[in-house]
Amino acid sequence: MRTTRSTTRRTPPVARYILAGTAVIVLGTVIAIAAVRYSKLDCPLQGSLIDPSVPEKPPAVRGRTLPDLNVEIPDGIRYTLLDQEHRDKRVLGFWFEASVLVEGDITELALEQLLGNLYDLATELPGNNFHPHPTGVSLYAFASRERWESDWRWIAMLHASPGSAAKVTINEAQLEHLYDEPVERFGLSEDRRKQVFRDVVAAQDRADCEAEQSHPSVELGEPGWESETMREKPLDDRRDFRDELLREFYGDIRRHYDLTEVQLEATSDEGTEKDWPFPPFQKCKEQ
Question: What is the C-alpha separation between 64 and 43, in angstroms, rounded?
Fold first, then answer.
């Protein structure tokens, strides 16, 4: 059965240190550029990139937020603000993010128009001492609160970073099945099958955690690090243990819902295809 939750795979140890070295170089370059920009502003560094004598403006979201503005809304669609935040990176940038709940006649064109209108207004919000307006904007549209709370299953997203045009991405799988009539399969209603799907994802999360805790990676400096075989063995053991756990967990789910192996896999595939909500992600408990 294929994995349904998009997980960030653990980077191999050698690659992690290469990436870490690259990150240090990039960070040093960014700081150097920032220092040059400050020197042009006659702003003394004094051990910091921020001149304490310059008063900060209040956060952009105070007093003027997206719902306070006159947003032109496409016919047939409504939106409600779910959350919003700004990330003040001072000289490096000022980012604005917001999530909205969309209801009504949800179409690809309506989503593009709504996010585009919200973006135009977001770019006019006040920025910080170094940027009059946000330099980056991310907007997310959700078709239900459940999807917002469920591992961020957005139906449309707009992202604009400094120096690039705003781009809207549509979750076509979710949009295609948004108005499907619920049907019964394998003696289960659609709501019941959605719960099966959530149980499958939760089982995969649990198996990932328990397998990683039982077979942790060999880190730099630990016994066996010098041997490639010793470094790879925990990964092989972890994969085998995860498969063993999943067989056990899937068996419990099949017995609980009176499903065959084929029916359980079909329900999992249906949830993935239709982008059903996931259960909240539970972080691995430390041993």
Answer: 29
Residues 18 and 91 grouped into a single domain: no
Q: Note whether 261 and 162 are same-domain residues.
A: no
Question: Tell me: the pLDDT tens digits for 158-167?
Answer: 999 887 889 9
DSSP 3-state of 268: helix
Residues 231 and 135 in one domain: no
Residue 42's domain comprises 11-54
> Using one digit for the tens of pLDDT, what is the confidence trace for 91-119?
678 889 999 999 999 999 999 999 999 99
Pair (259, 213) in one structural domain? yes
123 pLDDT exceeds 70? yes
Angle 190-214/261-274 helices, nearest 10 degrees?
100
Domains held by the chain: number: 3
Q: Which residues pair with 140 in a beta bridge?
A: 99, 157
Residues 200, 38: Cα–Cα separation, whole Å: 53
Opening angle at CA 217, ends 206 and 235, nearest 5: 70
3-state secondary structure 221-241: CCCCCCCHHHHHHHHHHHHHH
Q: Check whether residue 253 and residue 208 sit in a common domain.
A: yes
- Which residues on adjacent β-strands are paired with residue 95? 87, 136
Alpha-carbon distance 89 to 87, whole Å? Answer: 6
Integer Cα distance of 119 and 157 in angstroms: 11
Q: What is the pTM of this model?
A: 0.66
* N-terminal to C-terminal alpha carbon distance within the chain: 28
**Last residue of one domain, picked from the residues 176, 200, 220:** 176
